[in-house]
Design brief:
Belongs to the glycosyltransferase 2 family. GtrB subfamily. It comes from Marinobacter nauticus (Marinobacter hydrocarbonoclasticus). With about 325 residues, the protein is an alpha/beta fold. The chain folds into 2 domains: about 210 residues, Spore Coat Polysaccharide Biosynthesis Protein SpsA, Chain A (Alpha-Beta Complex); about 70 residues. Helix content is about 50%, strand content about 20%. The chain has 10 helices and 9 strands. It has a 9-stranded mixed sheet, sandwiched between helices. A hairpin with a 6-residue loop joins strand 8 and strand 9. The structure holds uridine-5'-diphosphate and magnesium ion.
Length: about 325
């Protein structure tokens, strides 16, 4: 008999949990010879999400809840969940029903064929703004060019992982957890499952553009040092350009004399070089700041309680 854990990060999702539970349990119950568990990771919700989940657990022993001590972010919530599962197959799914739970059946079918990762790939993204689609597409294109391995386009965290894949993920200790990148980094046989992404069932997205921008920076800086190299190349290019221009100025002065023109060009060049220097100081800063985070070696999350429906041991503090 196979075991399946459905891992759900939850942050202020009171409006969708009941419906999510209803649909997901219906899917899981239709599986034969598979024992399942739904693990909610509460990422410090401040609404009634926790109460609703606790209420469900009291009725259904196949659920459990891992409560983090505060809001650590989705990546940390997923890490916490993955550290607490030991099923043969693990499905990560958002609570907001943007990823249809019905697809879990197809994912399991592919897993049985021997794939370690079955990732949902969005063919359409309903209910997302034009700007979000555009920025997302630009990000994937950029990552495809700069990464040492490719992150599949239009994939999110909705995916099935084998136990082997989860064990591999647990070995990655970094605190900048750009999960999409880590999922690809581990390798193993992977396959895409195409689906069209629904709009949110209820509630609002937790990711605004500022968060997404920082998320993209995390992705780029955790998986490539190309921005750093760019500084060297642009530096070489500018130095070479300056050398050629300098030679031209010397020759010109020797031939025609020097009537001291050129204030505008001088200003332009100084400001331009100054801008480039500041920009790359910023790039250095991005990497340095992340190194600072890594060297602190802080835990990625803290657990407030772990409520298991199956054994009714109640709250176990970690
Ligand atoms: N989420 C989380 N912690 C956060 C933000 C979000 O656990 O700090 C969860 C959220 O509850 C949801 C999933 O991550 O289950 C995806 O969030 P959302 O739907 O807001 O993101 P989007 O689909 O808009 O990218
Ligand atoms: Mg969503």
């Amino acid at each position: 008999m196979d075991s399946l854990t459905v891992l759900v990060p939850v942050y202020n999702e009171e409006a969708v949990i009941d419906e999510f539970y209803r649909r997901t349990v219906a899917v899981c119950e239709s599986l034969d010879r598979t024992q399942f568990e739904i693990l909610f990771v509460d990422d410090g919700s401040s609404d009634k999400s926790c109460d609703i989940i606790s209420g469900l657990i009291a009725k259904d022993p196949r659920l459990s809840l891992l409560r983090l001590s505060r809001n650590f972010g989705k990546e940390a919530a997923l890490t916490a969940g993955l550290d607490h599962v030991d099923a043969d197959a693990i499905v990560i799914i958002d609570a907001d029903l943007q990823d249809p739970p019905e697809l879990i059946l197809d994912m399991l079918a592919l897993w049985k064929k021997g794939y370690d990762t079955v990732y949902g790939q969005r063919t359409e993204r309903h209910g997302e703004s034009f700007v979000k689609k555009l920025t997302a597409s630009a990000f994937y294109r950029l990552m495809a060019h700069v990464g040492r391995f490719s992150i599949p386009r239009d994939t999110g965290d909705f995916r099935l992982l084998s136990r082997r894949a989860v064990n591999a993920l647990r070995c990655l200790p970094e605190s900048n957890r750009f999960m999409k990148g880590l999922f690809s980094w581990i390798g193993y046989p992977q396959i895409a499952l195409q689906y069209s992404r629904d709009p949110r069932h209820a509630g609002e997205t937790k990711f605004n553009y500022w968060k997404l921008w920082n998320f993209a920076l995390d992705g780029i800086t955790s998986f490539t040092t190309i921005p750093l190299k760019l500084a060297s190349y642009i530096g070489v290019f500018l130095a070479f350009g300056s050398f050629v221009y300098g030679a031209y100025v010397i020759v010109k002065t020797l031939i025609w004399g020097d009537p001291v023109p050129g204030y505008p060009s001088l200003m332009t060049v100084i400001l331009f070089i100054g801008g480039i220097q500041l920009m790359f100081l910023g790039v250095l800063g991005e990497y340095l700041g992340r190194m600072f985070d890594e060297t602190k070696r802080r835990p990625l999350y803290l657990i407030q309680e772990h409520v298991r429906g199956s054994d009714f041991r109640g709250s176990v503090s970690a």
